[in-house]
Design goal:
The structure holds 2 protein chains of 2 kinds.
Chain A (H helix, E strand, L loop, with lengths): L17 H18 L3 E4 L9 H9 L5 E5 L3 E6 L5 E7 L5 E8 L10 H19 L1
Antiparallel strand pairs in A: 1-5, 2-3, 3-4, 4-5
Chain B lengths: L6 H7 L4 H14 L7 H10 L4 E6 L5 H7 L6 H8 L1 E5 L7 H14 L4 E6 L2 E2 L7 E2 L2 E2 H9 L2 E7 H6 L12 E2 L1 H4 L5 E4 L6 H14 L12 H4 L3 H4 L3 H6 L9 H4 L18 H4 L40 H11 L3 H19 L5 H6 L2
Parallel strand pairs in B: 1-2, 1-3, 3-7, 7-9
Antiparallel strand pairs in B: 4-8, 5-6
Helix pairs in contact in B: 2-3, 4-10, 5-10, 16-17
The chains are: A alpha+beta, B alpha/beta.
Chain lengths: ~130, ~375
């Protein structure tokens, strides 16, 4: 990995929190490889100056996966250019951000089909087949 | 949603998928300032949570606290949490009024005795019962009566928590906070003028999730939201550390976003979540908009000595003030008044530009 890409230019307008965050993500990736442990970072709990969050997201870039969910409003789940590092943004129905996270994992849990939803879907399919047969 | 229905059942009935529920839990954890790793535990608890009865009493207040909560665009996470409670009495929001409204309060108290949550906004006047009444009942009597059967009391806003603006000098109504009158119930203070809406619902979500009150600081505030000073979480903090300050609201420092300490920012002595949770759906907060923190979540913030004076600044020239006080044999406050009048006359004479500092001192 080209470490030069990760170098953040520090200026007077920064809290200097972008670089430590990138290191935190690096540690989380090591953990993921070592023992499969997942890490979630809540971006809204950190003091970031205007523009710094975007700077962080620009540094992480975009990778191969972009997913958009529609559950209680939209959510965007994007794998960054660093595999295993995902940016998850939740919106409400008015497209206002209600949560913004960096998840370091194989795949965010929200992307997987949920047992309860699978069960409900199965029931619906069975009902539909019964209805079709009648 | 019936009172026996759990939150999980209610959300499913509304067609919200498990994914939607997990998203709701992630956002709830974020607003409760809990580690994201706790989302599965929150999901398990919220799934089984039942709808609590809430009685909301408004005393000497401006309705800003209710506005803060209800002006949030729906459906937000706080809106969803608000929907999961049974708001059995809120005289600003409910359709019923007069006797019917009071009957609803009494019925909710009787039905949920020992289990309901009492939310209070506004201070309570002790000077004269007639200063503030609801349906002819004094605020004090209504509070004492309703608090008896409450499981916990949430004092929303600085007025209910610490007396707020009605309590400011000279406190003409004898305003006191809830904690002055109620000593035998757990009280959670959520100060702010107004409080951040998600902090109000965050406390409700905590109660729904864990069935307990959150950890509180020495002023009765939830540590999750009031555990850090504004200053410590402020993105302008590095400028303070480097000694880079805006000196006026339109100088180069202000344009560069430097620290507002010298313009009177009360961030170093104010504990609240504004710097991280922010306002208007997480858009910004006063310091980000270029204005110093007023310290509105602290006791007696209105009497703190001037919004635009740096915390380190004395109120006036100490030597001259002392001379005035000794010479006139009067209290220092009177001397300051004389000093300010003298300064105003000097300014008028010299046609000097009047500054914010001059304006705020008054006579």
């Amino acid at each position: 990995m080209d470490t030069e890409l990760l170098k953040v230019e520090s200026g007077e307008d920064l809290t200097h929190n972008v670089q430590p965050l990138l290191h935190e993500i690096r540690h989380a990736l090591v953990k993921l490889l070592d023992d499969g442990g997942n890490t979630v970072i809540d971006l809204r709990s950190l003091p970031l100056a205007p523009g710094e969050e975007q700077k962080l997201l620009d540094k992480l870039g975009q990778g191969e996966v972009y997913a958009r969910l529609h559950a209680l409003g939209p959510s965007e789940i994007v794998e960054t250019r660093y595999p295993g590092v995902w940016v998850v943004v939740h919106f409400n129905y008015d497209n206002e951000v209600i949560g913004k996270f960096i998840e370091v994992c194989d795949m965010p849990r929200l992307l997987c089909s949920q047992q309860e939803d699978i069960r409900q879907g199965l029931e619906q399919l069975q009902t539909q087949l019964v209805w079709c047969n009648e | 949603m019936s009172k026996d229905e759990t939150l999980g059942e209610a959300l499913r009935r509304q067609g919200i998928s498990r994914r939607g529920f997990l998203k709701f839990c992630a956002a709830t954890a974020s607003l409760m300032a809990l580690p994201p790793g706790m989302v599965p535990a929150i999901a398990a608890a919220l799934e089984k949570a039942r709808r609590p009865s809430v009685i909301w009493l408004s005393f000497q207040e401006c309705t800003g606290c209710t506005e803060s909560l209800t002006r949030s665009h729906s459906p937000t996470v706080e809106g969803l949490i608000f929907d999961t409670i049974s708001l059995d009495y809120h005289h600003t929001l409910q359709a019923a009024s007069g006797t019917a409204a009071e009957a609803a309060r009494e019925a909710a108290m009787e039905e949920n005795y020992g289990k309901y949550i009492l939310v209070v906004d506004g201070s309570i006047p002790l000077g004269n019962p007639g200063f503030s009444t609801i349906a002819g009942i004094s605020n004090k009597n209504m509070l004492l009566d309703t608090a008896k059967g409450a499981a916990a009391i949430i004092s929303v806003g600085t007025c209910a928590a610490y007396g707020g603006i009605p309590h400011a000098k000279p406190n003409p109504t004898g305003a006191v906070p809830v904690s002055e009158l109620i000593k035998d119930k757990p009280i959670i203070n959520i100060p702010g003028c107004p409080p951040i809406p998600v902090v109000i619902t965050g406390v409700l979500a905590h109660f729904l999730t864990f069935g307990t009150i959150p950890e509180l600081d020495e002023l009765g505030r939830p540590m999750a939201f009031y555990g850090n000073s504004i200053h410590d979480r402020c993105y302008r903090r590095p400028f303070y550390d480097k000694g880079l300050f805006a000196e006026t609201f339109d100088d180069e420092g202000a344009k560069k976003g430097w620290c507002l300490y010298k313009l009177g920012c009360k961030g170093p002595t104010t504990y609240n979540a504004c710097a991280t949770t922010k306002w208007n759906e997480g858009t910004s907060f006063p310091i980000e908009a270029g204005h110093p923190c007023l310290g509105c979540s602290q006791p007696d913030f209105w009497d703190g000595g001037g919004f635009y004076k740096a915390l380190s600044m004395p109120t006036e020239d100490i030597t001259r003030t002392a001379v005035y006080a000794v010479g006139a044999g009067a209290a220092a406050g009177v001397a300051l008044g004389a000093l300010n009048r003298a300064k105003k006359k000097r300014i008028e004479k010299a046609h000097e530009k009047v500054t914010i500092n001059d304006l705020e001192k008054g006579d």
